[in-house]
Amino acid sequence: MAKHKNNTPEKPALLEPNEALFQAVSLCRKAGALTMGFDAVEDACVKGKAWLVMVASDASAKTMQRLNYAVGDLVDVITMPLTQDRLADISRKPVAIYAVTDRNLAKLCFDRLTACGAIQTEEDMSE
Prior knowledge:
By secondary structure, the protein is α+β, with helices and mostly antiparallel strands. Helices cover 49% and strands 11% of the residues. The chain has 6 helices and 4 strands; from the N terminus they run H-E-H-E-H-E-H-E-H-H. Helix 3 (61-71) links the parallel strand 2 and strand 3. Helix 1 runs parallel beside helix 4 (84-91), helix 1 packs antiparallel against helix 5 (103-116) and helix 2 runs parallel beside helix 3 (61-71). The longest helix has 15 residues, at 17-31. The mean pLDDT is 84.
């Protein structure tokens, strides 16, 4: 009888946290659950469609201030460790503000942001 080789595929290497976040945002875009740009994100938040708002790391302080004033009390606003240039592959142009409109994909992005260290937990703050 012939010996059979084990044809199970090898497990892929774990991704770097920033790359995993990039892939999660890309998945949101492909699923049609990503809103991009200040006005569109603000509109999605006001209508109650946005679950999570993410901002590129190189967004201006004025943009952050305007965003927190407009939607800071409606939805979580989190700064990503990714730049506008890195995210331009997803948005086809430099965009600083993104909103995720699907609950499960927002949780995926939130988990990836936590893995990147973009979200401070109470335990981290007490140390």
